[in-house]
Design a protein that fits this description.
Number of domains: 1
Oligomer: single chain
Number of helices: 8
Structural class: alpha/beta
Helix content: 40-55%
Strand order of the largest sheet: 3-2-1-4-5
């Protein structure tokens, strides 16, 4: 049974370059799960973001070289940032219910290095960000502790079969890997499930 008392809004972004103060969004993905990491709706929300006219030249060389499909998606299928913000907010309301009056009862933003995504959401996605809890769940924190204090193997996000093993509901996009928002967010859910399983085993 779903635990509706805790909901995680798994969120990932790709953006034009690594300087967050001046970066612009290229792609977003959102999946909402319960505390057991079961998705409330398995498809999630995925969208490319159209870079405003005049900002196309700000897309960094690494981004163009490493994730050209994201750049192409932004250029050919990108939505306006306002439409993406409305889409994310509407999707979150649809699957998790309208934003609770108490900020502490809203979904918790979750992901890897999610502070960067939270920063960009505050900057560009006010409707979506205004429906979230004040806490963040950063899987990278757990990964750091796992490596430093348990000396265990980290989760390999390059392997789709490992993602599907720990996140059976995964619907990975075809032909892409890491640094695609829709791929990465599902890898993050699987990664948390992996570390949970290893920590339980260590406690036994």
């Amino acid at each position: 049974m779903s635990d509706v008392s805790v909901r995680y809004a798994w969120f990932d972004t790709e953006y034009t370059h690594l300087e967050l103060e001046t970066a612009y969004l290229l792609q977003v993905a959102l999946i909402v799960t319960d505390a057991a990491l079961v998705p409330l709706e398995p498809e999630g929300y995925r969208a490319f973001v159209r870079v405003p006219s005049g900002e196309e030249g700000t897309i960094g060389a690494w981004v163009r070289e490493q994730i050209p499909h994201v750049v192409e998606g932004s250029e050919t299928r990108g939505l306006s940032i306002e439409d993406v913000d409305r889409g994310l907010a509407a999707y979150l309301d649809q699957v998790a219910g309208p934003a609770a009056e108490s900020i502490g009862a809203r979904p918790i933003l979750a992901g890897n290095s999610v502070h960067a995504d939270w920063f960009l959401a505050r900057k560009f996605l006010p409707l979506f960000q205004g429906r979230l809890h004040y806490r963040l769940l950063d899987v990278s924190t757990l990964k750091t502790e796992w490596q430093a204090h348990f000396e265990g193997e980290t989760f390999n996000k390059d392997q789709p079969e490992s993602i599907r093993l720990y996140y059976p509901a995964a619907r990975l996009p075809e032909g892409v890997g890491q640094h695609d928002a829709a791929y990465d967010i599902q890898a993050s859910i699987a990664e948390l499930a992996y570390y949970r399983s290893q920590l339980r085993r260590s406690a036994d």
